[in-house]
Design a protein that fits this description.
Length: 700
């Protein structure tokens, strides 16, 4: 059975007032995919915010401010908007949007990606790169000289071809004489876009046969530019050959109306170094077989489908118009442009690239895709846990695809576990049972993997209940990122009683925090070594390639506990990448009594001690040292030492207490956190130290 995963929730933060190329780029990609649940924070009302709203997406409108005090007020409203929308990832367009969205998103633990469409505000680029988790650029040249952690280039998508020329001109209301040629520009009406250079070029006697039509969008930042251009055209005697068409939302449909299209972006006194980010209009033109006259770097986009001219150089524009006045020259350039346009992805392909990137940063690889990845082998071990095995089989068998398999290795159960496993195998040919008396969990897993038919292996334990879609979440991750050797899923601890909730708060990660680590969670992890690390998986939810398993030497069979963590460490040490899959979630019930749980933690500690792994042992020895120092300070320390110890204790309990206070019966659970936490730590530390001493003795 293969099903589509739940869609990725993305909040777009974008200027709402101008529907330019950057805004149309995002709208085109969102329209081309069904893998997203989009919400929008529009900075200022206007056509872009309206365009999102007409598509049925929720839009939160915040003011668009320029002064520092106004920006601060908008930034203060951003966290509430993000809490309301609850995205998996935030996509901020441009410098202002990134500066407003990044602090709020990071405070809430939401991954944030910023989109760079041009080279404006160059001094802020490095700062925003550090503030965000990923960076998307719309052209290769925007990545030059930048050192980003996670970067992606998504060129403007190649849109569908335009309507025939007569229909296009009719829709635009344009009528030209038989001996006239039509030059088009689709752009914001602002000084940086070089419209005045095209107007001046018309005044050149050699370009007398050309008419200019501007599909112009008024820019609130330059409100007087339209009137200035009209006055300029009148002054130089070309007013009858310059036409302003107003906004043309679907320019790619009617680009065939023109004999050539100009993209003449240039610097201005306010922006002394300014270049077009990607030239969406240029791509629409060459897709429709229309030659382009372009300033750098748009000439790189169109290749031989256009003529390159220097910025702010009307004579060069006039010379290009003279060349393109020849029908044969126009035909050759147009054909070269159509070949060049074929190099660009269509809108669905570009949208998939962007969504895959965002899903990976949100730890939801393949979100929204149908799980068409490789066939997988699921391996689980069992020993005298008939109830746990029954729950596992009930949950996992319906998730198996036609070619998947489930391998159950029984370590010599004396209850009815083996009977239940064999009944499942008799009922479903995809289930295989192997009995290996005396086999521990590592030996059982290794044996099951050696028997498995497929190259991709998933493991879970009896006593775990995989959520619906668990296996397909792993399958999508493997399909989208075949170079990753280890995929670590998540688990949710079942807790009903106060002591269970206290132990869960102290000893286990919260799934909600894994996808959205707040500053407290990140600081706590760095300070106390309790960060969730996909290279240290749990056998409750994990997948890997057979190659990774083989190079790591399999699960260490000399360890009764901690074998999964050490296996993950060895996988990464041999050069394989490890990643997390939030959607691969299982639920797991704790032991029935506090005493049995403490025995389990003691065994976990013994696993660390037997492994003699420095990282694993370091955490437990640090606990021993901290508790020992705390006792000494309490008995004999001075005031400063006691204050420092108290502050350290408060910091250590901060995250578990915040978890406890968010759940049922918060005060009772929080009151138990210090006691349960100390018991858990000491049990694990005792197991680690005693096992390490015994292990060293044996080796000596």
């Amino acid at each position: 059975m293969t099903t589509g995963g739940s869609r990725l929730r993305v909040t777009v933060v974008q200027h709402g007032g101008v529907l330019g190329g950057a805004e149309r780029w995002q709208l085109a990609l969102a329209d081309a995919t069904d893998r997203l649940d989009v919400s929008v924070i529009g900075l200022g009302g206007g056509p872009t915010a309206d365009a999102w709203a007409t598509r049925g997406w929720p839009v939160v409108r915040l003011p668009s401010k320029s002064r520092a005090t106004g920006l601060a007020r908008v930034a203060a409203r951003m966290p509430a908007a993000l809490r309301r929308l609850q995205p998996d990832v935030v996509l901020a367009h441009g410098v202002k949007a990134a500066l407003l969205a990044a602090p709020a998103a990071r405070a809430l633990g939401i991954p944030v990606v910023w989109v760079r469409h041009d080279a404006s505000y160059e001094r802020l680029t490095n700062l925003i790169d550090r503030m965000t988790d990923g960076q998307v650029s719309t052209s290769d040249w925007l990545t030059r000289g930048r050192s980003t952690r996670h970067g992606l280039v998504v060129n403007p998508p190649r849109m569908a071809g335009p309507v025939p020329r007569p229909e296009a001109r009719e829709r635009l209301g344009i009528h030209v004489a038989p001996d006239e040629l039509l030059l088009g520009m689709a752009t914001r009406i602002t000084r940086n876009k070089g419209i005045e250079d095209a107007v001046h070029a018309l005044a050149d006697p050699a370009a007398a046969g050309w008419v200019l039509a501007v599909a112009g969008i008024h820019d609130p930042a330059d409100p007087d530019e339209h009137d200035r251009l009209v006055k300029l055209a009148a002054e130089i005697g070309v007013a009858d050959r310059v036409r302003f068409l107003g906004e043309v939302p679907d320019f790619h449909d009617v680009v065939s109306a023109f004999d050539a299209v100009a993209v003449l972006t240039k610097p201005s006194p306010d922006l002394a170094w300014y270049r077009e980010g990607f030239g969406m209009t240029a791509l629409e033109a060459i897709t429709g077989g229309v030659p382009v006259i372009a300033t750098p770097p748009v000439d790189e986009l169109v290749g031989r489908g256009g003529i390159c001219v220097p910025p702010a150089c009307p004579p060069a524009v006039a010379e290009a118009l003279v060349v393109l006045a020849d029908p044969e020259a126009r035909r050759l350039v147009a054909e070269a442009g159509e070949r060049r346009a074929a190099d660009f992805p269509d809108a669905p392909g570009a949208a998939d690239r962007l969504v895959d990137f965002l899903a990976w940063l949100a730890h939801r690889p393949g979100a929204g895709r149908v799980a068409t990845g490789p066939a997988m082998s699921v391996v689980t071990t069992v020993l005298d846990d008939v109830d746990g095995l029954t729950e596992l089989l009930t949950a996992i068998v319906p998730q198996l695809g036609r070619d998947d398999e489930l391998v159950v290795v029984d370590g010599g159960s004396v209850d009815e576990s083996l009977l239940v496993a064999r009944q499942a195998a008799a009922a479903d040919r995809r289930v295989t049972v192997r009995v290996e008396p005396g086999a521990g969990i590592s030996r059982g897993r290794n044996l099951g993997i050696s028997l498995a038919r497929h190259e991709t292996i998933a493991c879970t334990d009896a006593g775990c209940v995989p959520e619906a879609g668990w296996l397909d979440a792993l399958r999508r991750a493997v399909a989208q990122h075949p170079g990753v050797g280890l995929w670590t899923g998540t688990y949710r601890v079942v807790a009903d009683k106060p002591w269970e909730r206290a132990l869960a708060a102290v000893g286990y990660p919260a799934v909600e925090e894994l996808g959205r680590p707040t500053p407290l969670v990140r600081a706590y992890g760095r300070l106390f070594g309790r960060s969730w690390d996909p290279s240290m998986p749990t056998g409750r939810s994990v997948a890997f390639t057979r190659a990774a398993w083989r190079t790591a030497g399999g699960f260490p069979e000399d360890l009764a506990t901690g074998e999964d963590v050490l296996f993950g460490r060895r996988v990464v040490a041999t050069g394989h990448a490890a990643e997390m899959v939030l959607d691969a979630e299982v639920s797991w019930a704790q032991r029935p009594t506090l005493r049995s749980n403490l025995r389990m933690f003691r065994r976990y500690g013994e696993g660390s001690g037997n492994s003699l792994d420095r990282r694993l042992m370091g955490r437990d020895l640090t606990r021993v040292t901290a508790y020992g120092a705390g006792v000494v300070i309490a008995a004999r320390g001075g005031r400063a030492a006691r204050v420092a110890a108290g502050a350290g204790t408060a910091a250590y309990l901060s995250l578990p207490l915040s978890r406890a206070l968010r759940g049922p019966r918060p005060l009772t659970t929080a009151a138990l956190v210090p006691v349960v936490g100390a018991a858990r730590d000491l049990a694990k530390a005792y197991g680690a130290v005693s096992a390490a001493v015994r292990s060293r003795g044996r080796r000596t």
